[in-house]
Amino acid sequence: MTQDALRLEAAEGTARERPPMPSFLTSSLRVFDLSLGRMLWSRGTVFMALVIGLPVIIALICRGVTAIAGNNAKLDGVPISGGALFGAMMWLLYLRFIVPILAVFYGTSLMADEVEDKTITYLFTRPIPRGAVMAGKYLAYLACTILVVLASVMVVFFLVVPINGGSIAGSFLDLVKDLILLAVGLVAYGALFSWVGAQFKRPLLTGLIFVFGWEQAALAFPGYLKRLTIIYYLQSLVPHAMPQDDLLGMLQSMMRETVPIGNVIIALATITVVFLGLAIRIVGRREYVLDQ
User: Fold this and answer.
1) What's the rounded Cα separation, in Å, for the pair 115 and 41?
2) With 0-12 CB in 10 A as exposed, 13-18 as middle and 19+ as buried, what is 153?
3) CA 115, CA 95: separation in Å to the nearest integer?
4) How many CB atoms are closer than 10 A to CB 61?
5) Number of domains in the chain
6) Which domain holds residue 140?
7) Is residue 15, in this structure, part of any structural domain at all?
8) In tens digits, what is the pLDDT along the chain, a chain of 292 residues?
9) Does residue 90 form part of some domain?
10) 158-192 core/surface letters (b: 16 or more CB in 10 A; e: else)
11) Residue 291: inside a domain
12) Is residue 256 part of a domain?
């Protein structure tokens, strides 16, 4: 047998011994399983606990104050409605602050933390598509944030809605709408900031400027600029879960435009698919150089 034949036979044997690379979905689920536990017990856990704990503390204070005042608790002479108070917390705290800030903090760090901790090499040496690393970590981000945010909302709901005789059963459908709205917000914002984290050198700063700079300014100006924000589409869904007969409802109606539900779904789905796809593509092609 010639040397070429021996080399060919050895190469074929090596190829037969090497296990096939798993599919993109299987690889993503493996990274998800690996990342979820690390994310829940990471240094960001304290930050997340503080953020989601804020509405719970406010709800406890409101419940305590109204318990002392009895069923006649009033604000500026108007009886406090548990449903209206819950809607205000949903809009001002969860939708306008907690959802975007958690998405910025976790979304931008999906790859940045691996680079900073110099652990990205171990992920890329595994026999999986490199883009699956981003996809799996994005799924872990969704599981982590949706779990804790929705749990916080449930606690606030049961604390606040019964104030002044509010009906939990009568507000349950609104609660379901709110939970879906927050989950959709985490999905869309997370995809955007996953791309920011993969693309920019200072992703956290870039994300904060977008959320608290660009989005706030765009909503304040008339015209089409607001269509280039995520909150514009999310906010258009809030009136379905908030009362319209109080001061907050009137204020909200002045700050939003009614967007057809079909347009909202298309816009948010497009944002999610495009930016998550770009993030996966960047991670799959970029060469990461770790500082010594």
Assistant:
1) 18
2) buried
3) 30
4) 11
5) 1
6) 28-42+99-150+167-285
7) no
8) 454 444 444 444 444 445 566 788 888 888 898 888 888 777 777 788 888 999 999 999 888 877 776 656 555 555 567 777 888 888 889 998 999 999 999 999 888 777 777 777 777 777 888 888 899 999 999 999 999 999 999 999 998 888 777 777 777 888 888 899 999 999 999 999 999 998 888 888 999 999 999 988 888 777 788 888 999 898 887 754 444 445 455 555 555 567 788 889 999 999 999 999 999 999 888 776 655 5
9) no
10) ebbbbbbebeeeebeebbebbbebbbbbbbbbbbb
11) no
12) yes
State the amino acid at position 138 in one-letter form: Y
Rg (CA), the chain: 24
HSE-up (13 A, CA, CB side) for residue 79: 10
Residue for token pair 């993030």:
279
69: which 2 tokens? 């005042």
pTM of the model: 0.84
Amino acid identity of residue 265, one-letter, is I
